[in-house]
């Protein structure tokens, strides 16, 4: 067992933990980063699957993600735009496929008006929400005690309008059924992106990708930190008190003045604390849970949908794959589609055999793109729910009533222990931008306490 002393021990080598460690070192503090996995990056992971480069985790960069964009510039990383030329596809409740341009789906005029009205109402509410403290809104408790699906029912009787608006928050972001989280949680999700309109604008929220993959961010940050990053080192025990902490992993024991827990909230309880964390922390973590989404990668010999005049962008709350995009890798002449199967639909496909799972997913893709989608050269499913050190995607969210009740204590330090990850962010919540913001903020708080 290697024993070392540092000013700060960072637990978790994802974008947030590595950003915090980088900022701490810039301020003159010594650090050690302990990572349970055999790689850095957390929920960022670029890998070669059967000869295709796939981004198994997070991948997109939005124009408002200042913290991420500044980090990309600092690391010398280049970006490229997602392919979006041509017509988008929408499949309605009867299974009819329609093509369209712009953001509003090709639905009946009355349904279109209801969708536009809902977006306007949500934008107005979101404008009143501070993403860093949504619990401070005068109606926070009321909004946190009604599910998002029930809130939508109070706004319109148009079921197709409700299904489509619900899809952008439930399936596309929180990856939980709309009855399982509150209206306040939905408003936080939208506020973290600047507006609900931003969430429904695929050209905005899914704008660019990083050449070489977004995992380049943690890989290059870790490279700068060198031997201070320790892989295969899950922390089993964290002893803490007024004089500091001792983090005990399987390979390294670090004594430090401060600790940063840069892991998803549901993993915080995987560590034994001596003494135990305060009651408030114990309770709030029991009211947080991860969503569940399968990221589908299908690689074809050519991007055939482009020849057919399609952008690759497709939506339907009635399909197994509720959204899909052209995800062709930079410089690869082949075409890649990425799709998503979320919440209860994801439960369903994991209840069948691997072959039937593949068949059902490809059949759903074929409804958007035609029979050519049935025969990819490479097919891969990103299943973060089975990842030992993640256990879900994209991020943790509160159960009903939990955000107003516990949200204010999410980021509150416990003695020398600080918390930092995208799940805790305001702006950039559950995105890499939020992870980086949290890392910067957490490091600044520790620097101030340390008097560095």
TrEMBL record:
Q: What is its EC number?
A: 1.-.-.-
Q: Write down the required cofactor(s).
A: FAD
UniProt lists the family membership as follows: Belongs to the flavin monoamine oxidase family.
Q: Which UniProt keywords apply?
A: Oxidoreductase
Q: Please name the InterPro entries in this protein's record.
A: Amino_oxidase, FAD/NAD-bd_sf, Flavin_amine_oxidase, Flavin_MAO
This protein's record includes keyword Zinc: no
> Amine oxidase domain: from which residue to which, for each copy?
16-446
Listed name of the protein:
NAD(P)/FAD-dependent oxidoreductase
Organism, as annotated: Leifsonia stereocauli
GO-annotated molecular function: oxidoreductase activity
């Amino acid at each position: 067992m290697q024993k070392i002393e540092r000013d700060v021990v960072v637990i978790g080598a994802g974008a947030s933990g590595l950003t915090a460690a980088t900022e701490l070192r810039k301020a003159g503090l010594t650090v050690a980063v302990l990572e349970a996995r055999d790689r850095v990056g957390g929920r960022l992971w670029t890998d070669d699957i059967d000869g295709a480069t796939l981004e198994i985790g997070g991948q997109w960069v939005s124009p408002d993600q200042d913290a991420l964009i500044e980090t990309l510039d600092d690391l010398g990383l280049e970006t490229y735009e997602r392919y979006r030329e041509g017509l988008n596809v929408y499949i309605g409740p009867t299974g009819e496929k329609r093509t369209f341009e712009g953001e509003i789906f090709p639905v009946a005029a009355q349904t279109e008006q209801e969708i536009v009205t809902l977006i306007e109402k949500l934008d107005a509410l979101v404008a009143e929400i501070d993403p860093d403290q949504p619990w401070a809104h005068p109606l926070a408790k009321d909004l946190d005690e009604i599910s998002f699906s029930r809130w939508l029912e109070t706004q319109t009787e148009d079921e197709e309008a409700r299904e489509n608006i619900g899809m952008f928050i439930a399936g596309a972001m929180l990856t939980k059924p709309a009855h399982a989280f509150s209206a306040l949680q939905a408003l936080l999700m939208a506020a973290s992106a600047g507006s609900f309109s931003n969430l429904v604008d695929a050209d905005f929220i899914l704008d660019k990708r990083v050449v070489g993959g977004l995992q380049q961010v943690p890989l290059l940050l870790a490279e700068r930190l060198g031997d201070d990053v320790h892989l295969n080192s899950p922390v089993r025990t964290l002893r803490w008190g007024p004089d500091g902490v001792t983090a005990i992993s399987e390979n390294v024991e670090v004594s430090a003045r401060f600790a940063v827990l840069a892991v998803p909230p549901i993993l915080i309880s995987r560590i034994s604390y001596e003494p135990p964390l305060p009651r408030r922390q114990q309770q709030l973590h029991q009211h947080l849970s991860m969503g569940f989404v399968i990221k589908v990668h299908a690689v074809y010999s050519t991007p055939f949908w482009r020849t057919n005049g399609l952008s690759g962008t497709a939506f339907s709350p009635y399909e197994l794959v509720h959204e899909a995009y052209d995800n062709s890798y930079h410089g690869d002449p082949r075409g890649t589609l990425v799709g998503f199967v979320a919440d209860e639909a994801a439960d369903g496909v994991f209840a069948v055999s691997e072959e039937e799972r593949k068949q059902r997913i490809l059949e759903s893709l074929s409804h958007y793109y035609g029979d050519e989608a049935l025969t990819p050269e490479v097919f891969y499913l990103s299943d973060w729910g089975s990842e030992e050190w993640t256990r879900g995607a994209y991020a943790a969210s509160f159960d009903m009533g939990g955000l107003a009740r516990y949200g204010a204590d999410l980021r509150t330090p416990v003695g020398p222990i600080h918390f930092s990850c995208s799940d805790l962010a305001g702006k950039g919540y559950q995105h890499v931008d939020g992870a980086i913001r949290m890392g910067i903020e957490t490091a600044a708080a520790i620097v101030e306490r340390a008097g560095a």
